[in-house]
Amino acid sequence: MASDRPTGDELMHCILTGEVDKLDDMVKHGADVSFTTNKGMSVLHIAARAGIQEMMVHLLKEYPYCVKKGRLLDKQFGYNALHHWCANHGNVTVFQLMIEKGFDGSAPTEHDESPLILARNTRNEELVQHIEHNKMILQTDVNSAAMAKPDETPLGLAKDTGNSKELVNHKRNQSNGHFCDEQLPLTALHHCALNGNALECLTLIENNKGADVMKLASSNLDVIHSKRKTKNLPSKVTPMELACYCENLRVLRILTKCTDERIIQKCLTNSSGKTTKSILDGIKSKLCHIHKIPNENVVLGTLDDIKRNPRREKMFTVYSKTLTHGTESTMAGYRVLYRNPTICETNGVDEGRAVMRHCQDKGCQLKDMEREQIEKAISQESGKLWNKHSNIRGFLSSPVKYSKGEFLRKHCLVIVCLFKSFIPEGEEDFPKSILVDGKFIAVDVREGCFQQAGNVNPLGKHIPLRMGCTIGPNDKYWFGTLGPAVRYHGRLCYLTCAHVLFPDKDCQEKANEYDKANVSNGQSRLESKQPGLEVLQPAKSADQVVEDSELDDRKFGRVIMWDYAINRPTSIDIAVMEVTSQDRIPQTCQFTAYDKSQFEKTGYRHGEPTFDSGRTGVPTSSSIDVTQETESSPGAEGGSSGSAEFNDGVKGRDHNADNNILLFGCSSGPTSGKYKNTAKVQFTTKLCGRTDVNERYNGMQYIHHSQCGEDDCKLPPMAKFGDSGAGVFQRLDDNTLVCIGVLVAVDNTDSALVTPIQPILDHFGLTMASFE
Fold first, then answer.
1. pLDDT tens-digit series, residues 495-508
2. Percent of the chain whose pLDDT exceeds 90
3. pLDDT of 372
4. Strand 406-417 to strand 439-447: parallel, antiparallel, or no bridges (unpaired)?
5. Contact by Cβ (8 Å): 48, 41
6. Residue 152's pLDDT band (boundaries 50, 70, 90)?
7. How many whole angstroms separate alpha carbon 250 and alpha carbon 309?
8. Stronger pLDDT, 427 or 605, i.e. the higher one
9. CA 33 to chain centre
10. Of 83, 4, 89, whose CA–CA distance to 42 is shortest?
11. How many CB atoms lie within 10 A of CB 541?
12. b/e string for 575-607 if b means 16 or more Cβ within 10 A?
């Protein structure tokens, strides 16, 4: 049956698992082995990149028609399957089989890197020797030198007869000057290495597709002697070597990016000072080019870990969500570490999540005095630390310090970083403590990340509107959540995050406007550059065709004000949407969920919650602080708001115990968490690199994800992507709700970062909507 035919995703999963028998079975049931992903990755691309030898051999021998797709360059890396095999430490056996099946051993990648260069970059010496021995990189069309007499090789014959001087020079260029009896003229790129600038160098490389980058020229020419800065110049030089020895730093970085790794290493051994720095900058550019990532995603530094870096050698760290976390390679003698910035683990432990769970189990939370001290420490030191360290992602507070696998009951300022123990070049390590009012506040460093919670897979439509439903600006952008209801001059409006409705570029322009104006309010700032931007509910995925009539039917309102002014004591990332569709106006303020059981799991067993009072406030927490590291007795975790109706007291870790902060997101549905008297936090959603003041959120509330304390708990996280803009409420003892803020981001522990509600209302001149 057609419905039983395996999908492309299932086929690719089978390739990655290396199950050849399952592959054959899938083919029998209609799987297409010539299938490619939307990024041009065929089954051979996938298997080669994963380095699965058995699957590669099986595909090449049993399904030769997949070779045609495997020889094409993919859209993601610019590699064919042979390139992936060479770039991922593939062995000689499969390489030779691929050649026999029709792959070209000298075909370049999209970035003009040959299989030989890729094998060298991974220090795959066996494969390098195999390729060089067979002269595949030279595309020779005669018998290999190993099969002929020494004087009868193409190079030897041409040299002896004198009839093919061009061929002799070509072979000499490729063999890095092995023969030195002929004068080799300077190419245009060599002249540029002597006297040119970066733009000229780039133009020459692009116009000639990099063909002259590895060409050799004689170094004993008069024009070189007038420029050389060192006596250690070899008899034959590439353009990069010439730029290095003559210290033309303007083009050295460009040439490093395009030159063979072997030459880069050779130059590094004969360089120092600014010349070395220029080469290292070129290596950084080369890594960015290879992995198609921004310049800030590659960092040179030192890993302060005696086990992993006993000699404290410099190394590069590459941050990318598409590369395998924790792996490493080398580039020109330097170690290259690969990190996914969203995977926040130190020695396999997510320290933030471990501390969060420990605090839940033991009831640890900050006292008011401790919170005030940490708030002052953040206010006093954060600006200096942001400016001095590119590794920082944010600042939190904690009643517990995590040290060498142990939990210490000590209130501390938490520095959330990108890569713990990695110190970027030119920067210092983080402070161990901070002096505030004559007292030292401990510092705890943990890996973590913060991400705005927009998403690209919306849900259904609601008439009338309910808080927590899906909204979006159109069908080609991401979506978020309908937040709290408010009123502006008597008109019913709703809140969501500005980053849900407006692109990053528009948000950043708005942030820059605030910084230049240096104002805290002002109606002119709040007027949208796109007045009347219509808002849809819901937004559909980009691959669906939508008729204009259906699009009109899904419009429920328009943006009347918005601001992205995060360089404030309390950051504002908010859009105000007026409801313009009469059938969407509610008579009571209700919430949406996937099913009623979600309301039950958050404590509403006898009916759905409503929010008609329009009450606002700041979150409060239980004052209980368990400092003794002993097992909690059953029911001990329930605080002042954990009444018997909402706390079953199972093992003292029931997910409703004291979890009286509720969030209503369109992706997660109703979820609960805890406010632990946490100091207002700072963070950035920028995954890599140094941040300026317009990229840092300030004064946010931090709501702990604590829906379940059990290790095997299947409840969803407190917040997920798609929940940006969700209303956040506190449930009081009498089961009524108080609005405390709007969700703006989530962190690696699935906890919520929330903008307090009152600064939002003050900023826009709003009042909460009341339906009583």
1. 999 999 888 888 98
2. 31
3. 92
4. parallel
5. no
6. very low
7. 33
8. 427
9. 31
10. 83
11. 12
12. bbbbbbbeebebeebbbbbeeeebbbbbbbeee
Give the count of alpha carbons within 13 A of 149, CB side only.
3
Residue type, 448: G
| Number of neighbouring beta carbons within 10 Å of residue 417 | 22
DSSP summary character for residue 431: P
Mean pLDDT computed over 103-108:
89
Tens digits of per-residue pLDDT, 516-536? 655 444 444 555 545 578 888
Q: Which residues pair with 303 in a beta bridge?
A: 422
Task: Give the residue with greater pLDDT, 655 vs 77.
Answer: 77
Q: What is the mean pLDDT of residues 383-405?
A: 92
Bridge partner residues of 509 (DSSP): none
Mean pLDDT of 344-367: 85
Query: What pLDDT is attached to residue 573?
Result: 96
Whole-structure pTM value: 0.61
Instruction: Assess contact for 760 and 706: CB atoms under 8 A.
Output: no
Alpha carbons 184 and 110: distance in angstroms, whole number: 29
**Following CA atoms 350, 352, 353, 357 in sequence, which dihedral angle do they give, to the nearest 10 degrees?**
130
Reported in sequence order, the residue ranges of 418-567 that DSSP labels E, i.e. its strands, are 422-424, 433-436, 439-447, 450-452, 470-471, 480-481, 485-488, 491-496, 534-536, 555-565
Structure tokens at 685: 């959603």
Phi/psi at 489 (5° precision)? 50, 45
Q: Which CA distances in Å does 531 have to 483, 534, 559?
A: 20, 9, 7
Max intra-chain CA distance, the chain: 102
State the pLDDT at residue 713. Answer: 53
Does an H or E element contain 9, and which?
A: helix 8-17
Find where tokens 């730093």 sit. 249
Mean per-residue pLDDT over the chain, rounded: 79
Distance of CA 208 to the CA centre of its chain: 34
Answer yes or no: are the C-beta atoms of 722 and 455 closer than 8 Å: yes
For residues 387 and 379, give the distance between their C-alpha atoms in angstroms, rounded to a whole number.
Answer: 14
Q: Which of 155-169, 216-230, 545-559 shows the lowest mean pLDDT across its residues? A: 155-169
Edge-to-edge strands of the sheet including 767-768? 534-536, 555-565, 572-579, 491-496, 485-488, 767-768
Q: How far apart are CA 609 and CA 599, in angstroms?
A: 8
